[in-house]
Amino acid sequence: MKQDDYFLNQIDILGRILGKVIADLLQLNSPDNILQIDFINEAFKNGLDFNLDEIKVIPDEDFLNLLLKNPKINLDNLEKLAETLRLISLKSETELTKKALLLYLYVNQHSTTYSADRILKLNSLNTKNE
Questions:
Q1: Which residue from 110, 94, 113 is spatially nearest to 102, judged by alpha carbons?
Q2: What predicted TM-score, i.e. pTM, was given to this entire model?
Q3: Closest by alpha carbon to 79, among 29, 22, 24?
């Protein structure tokens, strides 16, 4: 169906955007740090309709529900978003750890595949969140 193809294409585009954001996060210690954050904000705004500042103020209990209402979101994209938030929290000292943890927990509970990497990240986030 054409509508199904459209949604699959939108999901794929969001996945690529989040992948690019993750790749760019590895460069956050560069002198272009402000430009990196601006790029990330723009990517979030285009893909998810909100930016980092808005993510920070969304109550934790509403954050996941808000994301799940977006038809562009699937488990793979949630995991990429969790990794993005985790890296931002590590690199720029922003407090997005709990939101990343919530996303990783949801993905871990609903995914049909086991990921040792995901478990390590969950443990790391749990330790940091305590």
A1: 110
A2: 0.70
A3: 22
In b/e form, how buried is each residue of 10-46, taking b as 16+ CB within 10 angstroms?
ebeebbebbeebbebbeebeeeeeeebbeebbebbee
55: containing domain: 2-129
Can you give the pLDDT at residue 108? 92
More confident residue, 34 or 94: 94
Angle between helices 75-92 and 2-25 (to 10 degrees): 20
Q: How many domains does the chain have?
A: 1
Q: What string of DSSP letters covers 79-105? A: HHHHHHHHHHHHHH--S-HHHHHHHHH
Summarised one tens digit per residue, pLDDT across range 61-77 is 888 998 888 887 888 88
Q: Which of 75, 80, 82, 116 is nearest to 97 (CA)?
A: 82
Burial of 117 (0-12, 13-18, 19+ CB in 10 A): exposed
Mean of pLDDT values over 14-27: 65
